Automatic annotation (TrEMBL):
SUPFAM superfamilies: S-adenosyl-L-methionine-dependent methyltransferases. This is Class I SAM-dependent methyltransferase.
Amino acid sequence: MNGPAKARAWDLVGEHYWNSGYYGGPAPEHQREFTRRMRPGARTAVVGASTVSLSTAAQQAGADLHVLDFAPGILRAASHTLGLVEDRRHLVDVTRPIPGHLKQAYELVLADRLVNRFSAHDLPAGIRGLRDLVAPAGILAVTVRFGLYERDSEIHAALTPAEQALFWRPDAGEVDYSVLPDRDIPLPVWGAISGDVMRDHLRARGREARFSRDELLSTVAAAGGLDCEDTIDATDGTVLVVLRRPGAAGQS
Ligand SMILES: C[S@@+](CC[C@H](N)C(=O)[O-])C[C@H]1O[C@@H](n2cnc3c(N)ncnc32)[C@H](O)[C@@H]1O
């Protein structure tokens, strides 16, 4: 739902996400946890082209790296940065049905806070889409932030009560960045990206789910086909959730 607008949000930022003095990747502890699961030659998918630190680590580990993203501009820019050939980059919205040739195609599927980018409506489909990429015995490792982001609380505090009611919907478990007003309110600063671009970027992201650990794990359980192997907390408050598809390697 609303995929094209969300994709445009990321293309507004494009390569400035990793090229303008902002580090938007995983916590260092999680970067290490992701990296130690990478294997030479293993088909490895990074979902979310903006997380170039993960893609670079996969290349350095000798993995067979594929990058998936629903935003054509950021996918192109990241592919250029990484030197990815065409059959290693895939324009895919993981909240939509996964194309047949990518189903169960990856021993390792990695995503940094991608799950936080889904709307509440799309969260179950996004989990199913990520699951469908994973080969038997393969791993899906995703970082998430539970509850509101600090920036959500700061934005919420700067809004009028009427705006607050539109911005944070506890009943739906969702924030809606599309309602951000024109006036000066605290917005995140990502390196040299201007305040105007940041506002347009966030507005286009629209609705994003905010959930608890139990809510996420019950969504994973309801999707089926993945066992939770581990959850690893980082000091920045994010959590790495490691899931495995049962089965024997090489069977699909
Ligand atoms: C991985 S997320 C989060 C990046 C960063 N680590 C953070 O926490 O802000 C952002 C990336 O995922 C991509 N993305 C977001 N939703 C997507 C979806 N439904 N399918 C595929 N790619 C998506 C965006 O285009 C962008 O490149």
